[in-house]
Amino acid sequence: MRSRSIKIASLFLLGMGISEIILRLKSAPQDATSTTREVQEDTEKRTLCTMEQLVQGKWTMGAEKYKPPYIPTPGERQQKTCRGFDPSARWQDWEWTPEDHSRCDFLNSDIDSNLFCSLVRNKTIVIQGDSISFDHFLSLTHLLGVPVAPPARVPKDPLRVSKICNGTSMLIGKKDFHLQQVGRIINEFHPDVMILNQGAHYVSDEQLIQHLNSTVIPHIANWQDECVLEKKDCHFVWRSTVPGHPYCTQFTKPAESVEEMETIIATSPQYNWDKLKGQNELVMDLLSRSSLLTEFNILDGYPINILRPDLHGPKKNDCLHTCLPRDNIYSFITLHLLRLWSECGPETG
Ligand SMILES: *[C@@H]1O[C@H](CO)[C@@H](O)[C@H](O)[C@H]1NC(C)=O
Ligand SMILES: *[C@@H]1O[C@H](CO)[C@@H](O)[C@H](O)[C@H]1NC(C)=O
Ligand SMILES: *[C@@H]1O[C@H](CO)[C@@H](O)[C@H](O)[C@H]1NC(C)=O
Fold it and tell me: Where in the sequence is the signal peptide annotated (predicted)?
């Protein structure tokens, strides 16, 4: 039987950061030296940022490096969306820094592939949705060192399977603007992690919610049931949608105020970008009310990448897609989720 309390419990734990609770219990003051002990523990093993802590932050300039994190393969369109990208030049980039970064841990500038691979051993991760989701997939394959050159003719809705971590695990990218093929991908690949998004290809609120509620959520719920039967520790992630940035070519650095960006988006409506904030909220509300789902996680790109009007290319008619080697935040958050899940341990009961 499905239990709503399990879902609430796992959300609660993710929200609070179970490691934080454990650490607090461990270091509960007992004597006068407890303060020093707490500080020591804190520097030795800082707790991971909760997802709530993670989204509160700002973009800060990182250290200079010898080279870019990777070079997009020819044909990956995002190569064209970078302003003055020079593969041989030194590299300096903005890094997402949570407000609480002195108190909690978030790896914001690279993927440690040994760490990543230790967390996904034998697992299959699916990233499915629009072209931004496909970029998330491409970014991860590059950061894990397994880019696959696209075929000369890229199909409109490509499916790409990458063996990662010395072939022990799989990363699957599926372009599927309106999430019509969630059932097919589950049947074909039996994933352990599903990261979905629908949003930038606008449909009305009613259509969006109706489709998610009557098709996508039931597929995910069936998959979650199968995972329980197969004793697999599966996780469902919904990535929120980030609107494009009107007048993007005028920005040369990240913005600091979400409100300011929202005002620009609201006062220059195009491509329904002004409606995406409301749709994100509708979807989150639907997911949290659903009695079918046993678990879900939100990869909330909105408050982070709404601050990146500078991340688009020189072409002013594409203020939605981002410069691929500069936009890896969803990959970093994917690793962060894997770390949070491994701390929580598989659900029991
Ligand atoms: C992959 O295999 C190589 C050679 O066996 C090894 O050095 C490396 O650590 C492995 N990488 C991962 C992520 O398992
Ligand atoms: C991976 O899965 C295979 C078959 O499903 C199993 O034989 C193997 O022991 C697993 N390896 C690890 C490290 O879990
Ligand atoms: C979603 O579907 C359930 C049935 O599974 C139904 O009870 C509920 O009213 C639907 N919600 C919306 C917002 O359509």
Answer: 1-19
Dmax (CA) of the chain: 69
pTM for the whole thing?
0.86
Residue range of the domain that includes 240: 111-344
Is 79 touching ligand 1 by the criterion CB < 6 Å?
A: no
Pocket of ligand 3 (CB under 6 A): 209, 213, 286
- What CATH number does residue 208 fall under? 3.40.50.1110
168 lines ligand 2 (CB under 6 A): no
Pocket perturbation via mutation, ligand 3, pick of 213, 217, 220 by most ligand atoms within 8 A of CB: 213
pLDDT reported for residue 33: 44
Determine what percent of the chain is predicted with pLDDT higher than 70: 84
Domain count, the chain: 1
* Ligand with smallest separation from the Cα of 232: 2
pLDDT at 211 over 70: yes
Would you say residue 15 lies in a domain? no
Per the domain annotation, does 323 fall within a domain? yes
